[in-house]
Amino acid sequence: MPHNTFIPRPLARRPWLALATALLATTGCNAWAQTPWPAKPVKIVVPYGPGGAVDVVTRKVAQKLTEQTGQSFYIENKAGGTGTIGATQVAKAEADGYTLMANDTTFSLLPHIFKKLPFDPAQDLQPVSAFVFAPMALAVNASSRFASLQDLLAAARKEPNQVTYGTGGPGTTPHFASEALGIAAGVNFMHVPFKGAGEATQAVLSNTVDFQIASPAGVMGNVKGGKMRVLAVSGDKRLSALPDAPTFAEAGVRWSGVVNWTGLWAPKGTPAPVLQKLQAEIAKAMASTDLQAFAANMGAEPRQIGGADMAKMLKDSTESWGKVVANTAFEKQ
User: Fold this and answer.
1) What whole-number distance in Å separates Cα of residue 212 and Cα of residue 15?
2) Which helix H or strand E contains 46, and what residues bound it?
3) How far apart (Å, rounded) are the C-alpha atoms in residues 46 and 24?
């Protein structure tokens, strides 16, 4: 045999080749294992009963996300405990992007409502995105004896704790917004809690309670249907969807009220790529013509903010609500 003849070495004696082959195999497996999200239906837990503002807004956004991604985004209502039952379910869910929670400004109230929560709002749930920023509206039955906000306040002054209002439960945004109105106007109302904002609306429709403070999304259908009337709205300007309803300031109360928003949370530890994809899809949904029109019809601002801005907004809102709660007779549960 010539001295310059090349004789191949066995693969076992080529460690670099064996390592390269193994790496290629592993990379291939990972590529197949990392299925793009969403690859199956996504559950959004609404921690209140159906029919309230959070439910109405979330269903509309979920419908749009379903259209955009080709996967079903569906709602599961899990009412109770001022939203804590549903929130706890999501906080303990697998952090894979397939279980989310929808909530509103009420989430920032939880530390002021409960002595101890079954989950840590700051550590167990990850803010994803907030959207549909809506003022609050004070609504009464269309046949109500109160033709104006001043009529309602005059009755409350004459008969303390006799004018009633309904909410989706103690400690919700409408609860403390109603109490804040009473403080600003120097009157005392009677709180009648229900399991959800939708039930509170039904109580107004049946004349079980005198009024309700709610996001326009929850009452607009009944207002346009002639079943309810809005006596005042929060914010510094009238809503284009309700041009005849004055602001609280215009109605004679030095109180700007509350701007409510809806948002999504995910279990802490949800992969960053999933959160980024979800935020991008929500931004796309909120920029769509139909969701822009949906928000405008309820007098809301159809903008969207990401997780970092939402976290800061939650922190600021929690501090702000603390001042309101401190001026009420509410005791932590």
Assistant:
1) 75
2) strand 42-46
3) 44
